[in-house]
Specification:
9-stranded mixed beta sheet, about 425 residues, alpha/beta, globular, 17 strands
Length: about 425
Amino acid sequence: MAVLLCIVAIFLFAACKDKHEAEDDDGGKDVVVPDDCYADSRTILVYVVAENSLSGGAVSDLNEILLGVKNSNLYMGDKVVVYLDDTRLPRVYCIDKTVTAQTYTELVPEVEYEEDVNSASKEQFEAILQYVKERYPASSYGVVMWSHASGWLPSTAEMQTSSTKSRRKSFGVDNEKNTTSNIGSQMSISDIARTLEAFGGTDFIFFDACFMQTVEVAYELRNATKYIIASPAEIPGPGADYRTMIPACFQKNDWADAMLSAYYDSYSDMSSGYGLVISSVDTKAMSNYAAYVKSVVSNEYEAILSANYDNVLRYFQFVAWSRDYPDFYDARGVMKNVLERDTYAQWLEEEAKFVTCKHTSAWYSAFNRKQNYIDASQCSGISMYVPLSKYVYGTGACSFAEFFPSTSWAKYVWNESEESEYK
């Protein structure tokens, strides 16, 4: 009932300017803008799930978004729609070139919810996407997913073991108490994928969230978006600099490369004390890449499972946090560790068609409490789960070992009996 009420509230109280009106240069009467200004417009939804420990950072990013819009060469039809759920009740903001607010405190929400909702639910994500499509139709769309995350790992709704619920994030954490607690609901990657597919897909999904650039996530989202921009590791504390990211998001061509560079450039000199691994995945190449990986896994199955991975680049270590996450191995690092030279050279060729990566010399890990130095020869910018025997020791924290075979990637790549859907 709460979700239904909020959907109704959205349509009752939404009140942005009509898309054919804009302030003139002198701030006087509205002027009519030619329809062709909207022909190549883009609407970007920034979906901020911050009813958790990240609540304090959401407002600063909204201030950066305001500056980013002002610094962008936007069409009149271009919009940034920010859905913000932090320790206050959820709000929706519309930001475009007509907005005069200089800071968040001057920005008037288009919608203010009268009761709390679970923003880490498929239902609320669907409601906001529907609102965006109805209120701000555009020729293209992008989505920014802003929150905690843990890659392909199952959400609590998919978990049965209560001892692991507090640290299963998948995407988002909404504690439904308007506090900074990280114990709450998460959204599964399959729910994100199906929702965006029903929406009609997007030009990009940008995850300003940890661990989201994995082969398992990319495969699940292959029909939901053209590009995925994300990190296989923890993202720096400040996240993206939206002053430069927003102009990149609105590029009409090569936006994925522009977004990749914008994120990387903010951390390239490591003067902030943070390092970064960031990459862009071209989902058009996903089917061929998955078929190739399937053939490698089939041919090298025993070698992959029996290899020693002590020196392989990983973005999270299994033992770092009470064995609550598996190793997040870089896919290139895994294959360099296993394959013969000629086969590995072919792997690099296939990888280059699929993923583009930028990285500093190291990245900071809150889990390991240190700088982690990157072996560039092992760094592709996308991680993969290897179903090693060390992850299987009964129930509890390793229930991800039981969940992995149910992922779309595992069913196709690791299950030899599974027929390829791309034949």
